[in-house]
Amino acid sequence: MSTNTRPSGAAALLAAAALVLSAILSGLLPPEGIVDSASEYVYRGLALLAYGAIIAAVLGLHQAHRGLPRYGRLGTIGMVATVVGYGAMLVLSAIVVVRDFEYLLTIRVIGAFVLLIGSVLLGIAVLRARLLPWWCGVLLIAAFPVGDLANALFPVAENLLLALLWGSVGLALRQRRPVSAEPMVATPSTPVER
């Protein structure tokens, strides 16, 4: 059995690029509000692209780790919660293109909480599995909560930290070789007693 992680790595890199572009564009836009200009539509489109690509990357990350004993249920629960959290952000970002979503703030907060829990669990599972570099797990744990806090100091800090996270995961997944079911080292046969 072989797992090709290159497509999910490409999705993570696409998410990172969309997050960086949205951070740049965010500096040119007025504060949050109803979408009414072409640049705001591009910004919202980049957010939708980023969230969709992140979901694809998380699913690929899970596929790469599935079956590893140290990843296990913790990784699966983390993956599901992370996908649900980013899925909520994706849906809310799509709604905001059409209308203001202030009345959906509670759903956004719940989605962010689920995403936080999921990314922490997924990060711990990635660290335990030792399939990707350790910093991928650390970034999964830290990027979302630290980015949210850093937004108070620098308005696009969260997008930049998430771009660092998914760019790093994307590079790690793209450079990883497919895993095969065949053992890397032949096991010595037991000697025959005479």
Polypeptide structure, described:
With 194 residues, this protein is mainly alpha-helical. It has one domain (6-175). The chain contains six helices and no strands. α2 (38-65) packs across α6 (157-175), α3 packs antiparallel against α4 (105-129) and α4 runs antiparallel to α5 (134-150).
Q: Write down the Rg.
A: 19 Å
Indicate the structural class: mainly alpha
Distance between the termini: 38 Å
Mean pLDDT, rounded to whole units?
Answer: 84
- Number-wise, the strands total 0
Tally of discrete structural domains: 1
Overall helicity: over 70%
Overall shape: it is globular
Report the uncertain regions.
178-187
Q: Give helix and strand order, one letter per element, not per position.
A: HHHHHH
How does the major sheet shape up? none
- What count of helical segments does DSSP give? 6
What percent of residues are in strands?
under 5%
Descriptive key words:
mainly alpha; globular; 0% strand; 194 residues; single chain
